[in-house]
Specification:
The protein is of the alpha+beta class and 109 residues long. The protein is 27% helix and 30% strand. It has four helices and five strands; from the N terminus they run βαββααβαβ. The strands form two sheets. The protein has a three-stranded antiparallel β-sheet, with helices on one face. A hairpin with a 4-residue loop joins strand 2 and strand 3. Bound molecules: iron/sulfur cluster (2 copies). The site of one iron/sulfur cluster has 14 residues, from helix 1 and strand 3.
């Protein structure tokens, strides 16, 4: 059975947090629990401040198995307006990653 995961393209992320909200609502998680988090990384240049957003899955991510077994996309994938998150098999995601170098694969067990 192929292993599934998420490919997240970091530099497309706008920091909107819709993925976190969608994940929380889908699972009815209680306070402090969420399957995906978005961190802000602030760096300073000579005359500018840069903010990068870094989405990553947590140990609570179950890859939305209740949705995907019905042929639906995970909640975070569906609600990301910037199309940063792709769901698929790890081997499919690895191929896609060749074209999206600023991305990471998350494959929770
Ligand atoms: S795949 Fe599902 S459980 Fe995992 S982060 Fe996305 S919405 Fe949350
Ligand atoms: S929904 Fe997409 S754009 Fe918004 S924070 Fe999550 S990964 Fe980034």
């Amino acid at each position: 059975m192929p292993r599934n995961g998420l490919l997240i393209q970091h530099d497309w992320c706008t920091g909107c947090h819709a993925c976190e909200v969608a994940c929380k609502q889908e699972h009815n998680f209680s306070e402090g629990m969420v399957g995906i988090k978005v961190d802000e990384v602030v760096s300073t240049g000579p005359d500018k401040v840069y903010v990068d957003f870094m989405p990553y899955t947590t140990r609570f991510c179950d890859l939305c198995t209740d949705r995907t077994k019905l042929g639906e996309q995970p909640a975070c994938v569906k609600h990301c307006q910037a199309s940063c998150i792709t769901y698929g098999t790890v081997s499919e995601l690895a191929k896609l990653m060749e074209k999206q170098p600023l991305s990471s694969i998350f494959a929770p067990k």
